[in-house]
Amino acid sequence: MDSINFIKGYGKVQDLELQHQSPNPNTNTQKKPFVTAVSILAILFLSLTLGAMFGVLVHMAASDPPSSSSSNSAVHDTDSVIKAVCNVTRHPDSCFSSITSFSLCSSSRKLTDPEAIFKLSLRVSIAELSNFKKTMISNSNQGAAFADCRSQIEDAVSRLNDSVVAMEVCSGGEKALTETKISDLRTWISAAMTDQETCLDGLEETGSTALDEVKTKMKKSQEYTSNCLAILANIHTLLRNFNMPLH
User: For the whole prediction, is pTM greater than 0.90?
Assistant: First the structure.
């Protein structure tokens, strides 16, 4: 798999310096890629900062020995690890609730490995985006902007699916994560975030009456994808605190 250049984009950050410049109606669309790039850098910086803050918590969760007699203690231990991993994200509550709920509905067993938790976070994001895509299909009569938005969401789902496939291990010597894979995954997840923002930008530019409804329905998928990127950005720190290598 070829590495893809890191795509930096997500969110909208208000640039205070722009308040002192004369308005130029022709520069609005040119500003968006820069604004999106600044925003994703902010997300990554915040994620790394949170990762350092909660490093001790992760280490404590990993080193705390589970009870030998109680199955409830195993659940508690798993929840503690997931919570510690989710604390490096911007949306720790949605991260924890979505991953724990999804793990109960899947074949996932005890989650005490940051890599396994990261992979499950990708599946959570895919599931939410897929549900959102169904909403877009049911409103296919809304015009070209809606059709473009649906196409962006399909692309986002595809990128996240590529990320899950990249972590599949086919042989004993292959690692689920390598430095090359991490670079690729960072690119794909960032692109999936940008796809969602591009969908909203298109509806906003055309003055679609469905913009507010789409924003509301997309909120969870945006948070979940952001959580994926934050966990990946901190994967080395998380594994180090669990005394684990990339594996």
Answer: no
